[in-house]
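Example: Glutathione import ATP-binding protein GsiA.
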Amino acid sequence: MLDHPIARIENLRVEFETRGGNVVGVEDVSFSINPGETVAVVGESGSGKSVSSLSLMRLVEFGGGKITGGHLLFDRVKGGELDIASADQDLMRTIRGNEIGMIFQEPMTALNPVFTVGRQLTEGLRVHKGMSKDQAYARALELLKQVRIPEPERRLKQFPHELSGGMRQRVVIAMALACEPRLLIADEPTTALDVTIQAEILALIDRLKRETGTAVMFITHDMAVVAQMADRVVVMYRGNKVEEGTVQEIFDSPKHDYTKALLAAVPKLGEMTGKAYPEPMRLLGVDADEVKPIVGSEDDLLVVKHLTTRFPVKGGFFRRTVANVHAVEDVSFTIKKGQTLSLVGESGCGKSSAGRSLLRLVEPKSGHIYLDGKDIMALDQGGLRKARLDMQMVFQDPFASLNPQMQLADQVAEPMWNYGTKKGADLQKAVERLFDRVELPRSFLRRFPHELSGGQRQRVAIARALALNPKLIVADEAVSALDVSVQAQVLNLMMELQADLGLSFLFISHDMAVVERVSHHVGVMYLGRIVEMGSRRAVFENPQHPYTQALMKAVPVADPARRKGEHELNFKPIPSPIHPVDYEPAMSEYRKVADDHIVLTTDSGY
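Written out as structure tokens, the predicted fold is:
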């Protein structure tokens, strides 16, 4: 069975036409994928891994690319081997979705916002499989159950915006699997998902592959995911394949320097055991002497007391408030100068709402926020504008937070220009210094956001946040969508800035290994409350709350010998945070485990 591959890529070359001439996206790449096998293609943004997958679907042409060399041989169910590189688009329409399924990285852009989930799931089945409306509906329901979506009947009637990120990604997976394709291409399917949902989705893809014999091409930059999923690994760098081997060979004895650098850049859970303070990662090419722990000071910068944020749910003819979403419920914490507090938890636990409430980007219902002794809640609009000089935010999606029509130099200069802190030549110099600071070439000053990779865009966002010399930066999932090596560089950059400038960070993340690396203190959030909080060592080395323990268990380990089975993952579904208007929850009460470690005793619902 395994002697004949389902897909073979031979000497693929893809070029893109740009104003500055032709750019080579993939130079010369060859590899094959066998039935029932998972081949992980790893590399950084711009290495050509997504371009290879889009070429296999012949979608690369819709993005301005052109296959200028090589063969893409696909073994069809009927009709034998076909060279996709020279197939016409009509034939590709019958193959796409039917024989080759694809899970895209960003579920919100892969789903159509104006159609219900049910309509989108049944469409492919009716087109490719000729099913009746009822048959397609029954199959769609079965698919949603397969990807473990709760209340599938209700979900079929909902629109994509009514689902969380993890749910949307599961719908995209269900769509890709609907017609039982021979080859499934998964392009970063878990990058922006929570640890728990990621663990479930990886187990799901693995189970479906075993049950159906589908071949999987898994594109990722997360080496822990590779260790969990792959049979074979193809490492790509700048449009070329630099190494290929079984998952054991790649992890145990990588040959190419780039593969070694990739593996060195993976933060591993447990690496910081026994260390009191965070320290930058030892990346290849970085002097070991330069890696110093970041102590910070013992003075309070930010004190938050009983912060509560709720969002109204409108309904009825007069759009009255019929219920509230309890996003942040009675949260208190302190951040010291030059230190990092991390908030971790799954999507919808309220960590981003807590971060936004601090800057009053969303208005809290009650509570106190003191920044350097100043009561943020008591300020009027003018005072708040002034206070924001001291606190800035780095958002999760740099593409959405940057203006697509402005050059990068202007975007980084804008805060200084708005606040009048720098003018003329000083402003220009300050922007150049900020670009140097976040290690971006000055030639990028005149570029636009779409001309950069994700990691480069995030650096621009960090440069912009630093423009006003803030004391506190709220980093909301700032590295979750970045490549491992870029993520490691950005984390090291943030820690270097912290050491040099005495910055404090509120670091919001769902990546436990990253949190362990950067934090002085950690707060674990669940359904709007902090369920456990303490120094990083206390929380990671002695987790007390069952939810914290479940989170730790879900983290994939970058070691193929320690793969997690589906039976190890037993997550409870998260209850709804929506409550009637007159509902008043209990106050948060905590039990002291140690001097620097507390656990919630109020019922958190977990």
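DSSP finds 21 helices and 23 strands in the chain.
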